[in-house]
Hints:
The protein is 68% helix and 0% strand. By secondary structure, the protein is mainly α.
Amino acid sequence: MTEEAPVALTAPPAAAPPARIHRHWTEHGLVFVAPFLLTYALFLLWPLVSGLGMSVRSENIAGTGAEFVGLDNYVEAIGDPDVWASLWNTVWFTVLSTVPLVVVGLVLALLAHHLRFVQWLWRLSWFAPFLLPSGVVGLLFLWVIFPSDFGFADQALAAVGLHPGIGWLTDERYAMLSIVLTTLWWTVGFNFLLYLAALQAIPSHLYEAAELDGAGPRQRLRHITLPMLGRTTGVVVVLQVLASLKVFDQIYIMTGGGPDESTRPILQYVYDAGFTGYRIGYASAVSYLFFALILIVSLVQLRLSRRHREENSR
Length: 314
């Protein structure tokens, strides 16, 4: 019997690696974000550039006969007393609304966090108004809460022995305050939710250690809860100031800027100048000046919050 020569076992040739396809868009994932980028450019970047072009022309609502006027619209806006009056109304609303919206949101979050019964009901009832559309909220307070003599607000005053019949939305002394109360009831749920999430993220062992050291509820609130909520408070304040500066819906529905334009915000003035006065170019110039103001406020708040964090970290 003859032996067969051993067959050398050789590994099969490795398959050649597929040629790498150099596709810049695929490698960096731009294909997946292209729909978002297109939408962003179409509905934000293009209107931004287009509005800037309108602001240097005598554009009207019909889009005809526009001429280049340079910075004339901006110069006129800076010298327009109605612009400054509506800007003051906006700033005054921001001052009146920011503090209670932050403080009440914090208090509601503390209550919801420490209540031990039907927590879901408290959380739902305090956050639910934030889900309502601005039109529903405006009409609710216009026709149910603030009507003179028969509104809920006047009935509440009469129930405690005070004189009803206050012109909540028709008296210059109370109109802005009424809008602030409406905004507080409507939007405080958002700040409440942010604070509640931050409270739930505080480690429980900090409270346990403080309790073992004899710290009472007030001391734990002052030395643990509030410092741990510092960053959240900064975020809430920034978001609230920016949201209040952009107020429009509830004022337009409830007072239309009255009485005697005492509640008209800057955005409503832009609306009136563009769609009632048919001066789209001038309205665009006013809106870009207001945009510059919001940008400055945002940068200042960002700088202050960053400095505050640096001081606390030392």
